[in-house]
Write a structure and sequence with these properties.
7-stranded mixed beta sheet, 3 domains, about 475 residues, FAD, flavoprotein, 5-stranded parallel beta sheet, cytoplasm, binds 1,4-dihydronicotinamide adenine dinucleotide, NAD, FAD/NAD(P)-binding domain, alpha/beta, binds flavin-adenine dinucleotide, Enolase-like, domain 1, globular
Length: about 475
């Protein structure tokens, strides 16, 4: 077989695409992956939004800024003090860039290890050919029996205020602000707004977040959202709900946002930088879907069925470019499942138990249904809640904010949702996902031995609380 004929061609090398390519190669297929992301030197930087301007760099900055905040505000109670604590933003950004590069290099290594042919450049449909498709891969044209599209998403701009990445910042610009702004504005109190707002607040910026909806974190369990609002306010994040943005104007000195507040009163906010994080739009720029008649919906997302099949035989799509939550792990699971389906196996993604994490401090994590969803469905449920304040490990950590809340079916006791706000919620939620995947009851968790002292005992105690028999609260 010529090297230009592939069983599978994956367009896009983010978490959806690169994982699909690796899994397809593991299953014995001849695979190519095309990705156009360039590093600062113009070289390849596979890993997509997640690796380059998303999950990984944001977590690097969250970590650096958390160290700074701890040194400034929390270490004294441990008897540790330091004079003249400084933040070198350039160094912090350089470390973040290094973390990104390590991930880029890791993916290139994995392609080699799994014999995936990598093309650095744009991938686009040329046309259908008998038994497959012709795909432009950079300057070359290659043949594919099956195509997996994983072209991701882009930040949505406010109408009339395009990103200039100097004053009006998308996630890209928000991750490389060269020095702590005195005043930072954020439009959208969603995941990016809260994570990036937290980074720059910890480093000393005065942060104002303007949110269009009248409720805070509407998709999150109400109890958790209420606790989060209280804590973020105490930390100094000024979150204004129910606003309507009317105009965004840039000048040499910064940005002015004109808006109506929740009462309809005209207000204006002057900031040095403005992060606009109001959601993302599926990306098919340059893919040339028209050449083959690939169907898109009104949002520009590629139309797929539950198994990620598009309207075209042998063309699949996964990740942010299709329906469903825009999360890296969701994209990866879809990528694996599609590769397995192509190989004739029965890949499966359980959309009901995809975990969510917001990496603020405290972290917020959940899986399954919220209390408000269960109420709306009229489903009878029992709730158990345990505060970290009553957990020995949390006290030793000096991080007792928040709680674990478990929701279980009133009759069968099957766990329907778990909602956590507190230390290492991102790690604690994994046990709950496993439990739900195995259809565990709250009693199952309550009867499993958890290490002491550990934060995970709070999950066990929340399970005990479902049956009103917590031991430590
Ligand atoms: P992408 O990661 O967007 O990758 C698509 C790739 O395809 C890109 O490299 C792009 O250049 C390439 N491409 C597009 N078109 C073409 C073409 N025609 N030819 C060649 N290449 C092309 N999710 C989490 O789960 N956890 C987090 O902590 C998290 N943090 C985030 C933080 C931020 C600031 C942002 C913006 C997002 C975050 N996300 C997080 C979301 C996550 O990044 C996405 O859900 C994930 O990257 C989607 O993966 P994907 O493979 O579908 O697309
Ligand atoms: P988001 O959907 O999380 O939040 C957008 C917010 O902006 C919403 O609260 C919305 O009501 C508000 N909004 C929309 N239009 C507005 C307007 N005109 N004026 C004021 N407010 C407005 O989107 P975000 O934060 O941009 O992130 C995009 C996606 O990236 C997330 O949905 C998530 O899928 C992914 N992501 C995941 C992370 C994680 O898993 N930890 C971290 C960051 C992003």
């Amino acid at each position: 077989m010529s090297t230009k004929n592939f069983d599978v061609v994956v367009i896009g090398g983010g978490p959806g695409g690169y994982i699909a390519a690796i899994r397809a190669a593991q299953l014995g297929m001849n695979v190519a992956c095309i990705d156009e992301w360039k590093n600062a030197k113009g070289g390849p930087a596979p890993g997509g939004t997640c690796t380059n301007v998303g999950c990984i760099p944001s977590k690097a900055l969250l970590q650096s800024s958390e160290h700074y905040e701890h040194l400034n505000h929390h270490f004294a109670e441990h008897g540790i003090t330091a004079d003249n604590v400084q933040i070198d933003v350039a160094k912090m950004l350089a470390r973040k860039d290094l973390v990104v590069k390590q991930n880029n290099d890791g993916i290139l290594y994995l392609f080699k290890k799994n014999k995936v042919t990598f093309f650095h450049g744009r991938g686009s449909f040329v046309g259908a050919k008998e038994g497959g498709y012709e795909i432009k891969a950079g300057e070359e044209v290659i043949q594919a029996k099956q195509v997996i599209v994983a072209t991701g998403s882009n930040a949505r701009a406010l109408p009339g205020a395009p990103f200039d990445e100097e004053f009006i910042l998308s996630n890209d610009g928000a991750l490389r602000i060269g020095g702590t702004p005195k005043k930072l504005g954020v439009i959208g109190a969603g995941v990016i707004g809260l994570e990036m707002g937290s980074v720059w607040r910890r480093l000393g910026a005065e942060v104002t977040v303007l949110e269009g909806l009248p409720v805070f974190l509407g998709a999150v369990d109400e109890g958790v959202a209420k606790e989060a609002a209280k804590v973020f306010k105490k930390q100094g994040l000024d979150i204004q709900l129910g606003v309507k943005i009317s105009e965004v104007k840039t000048a040499k000195s910064g940005v002015t946002v004109s808006y109506a507040d929740a009462k309809g009163e005209a207000k204006s906010l002057e900031v040095d930088k403005l992060i606009v994080s109001i959601g993302r739009v599926p990306n098919t720029i340059g893919l040339n879907p028209e050449a083959v008649g690939l169907a898109l919906d009104e949002r520009g997302a590629i139309v797929v069925d539950a198994d990620c099949r598009t309207n075209l035989p042998g063309v699949w799509a996964v990740g942010d470019v299709v329906r469903g939550p825009m999360l890296a792990h969701k994209a990866e699971e879809e990528g694996v499942a599609v590769a397995e389906r192509i190989a004739g196996q029965h890949g499966h993604v359980d959309f009901d138990i995809i975990p969510w994490v917001i990496y603020t401090s405290p972290e917020i994590a959940w899986v399954g249904k919220t209390e408000q969803q269960l109420k709306a469905e009229g489903r009878a449920y029992k709730a158990g809640q345990f505060p970290f304040m009553a957990n020995g490990r949390a006290r030793a950590l000096g991080d007792t904010t928040g709680f674990v809340k478990m929701l279980a079916d009133a009759k069968t006791d099957e766990i329907l949702g778990v909602h956590i706000i507190g230390p290492f919620a991102s790690e604690l939620v994994a046990e709950c996902v496993v439990a739900m995947a195995f259809k565990a009851s709250s009693e199952d968790i309550a009867r499993i031995c958890h290490a002491h002292p550990s934060l995970s005992e709070s999950t066990k105690e929340a399970a005990l609380a479902v049956d009103k028999r917590t031991l430590n609260f």
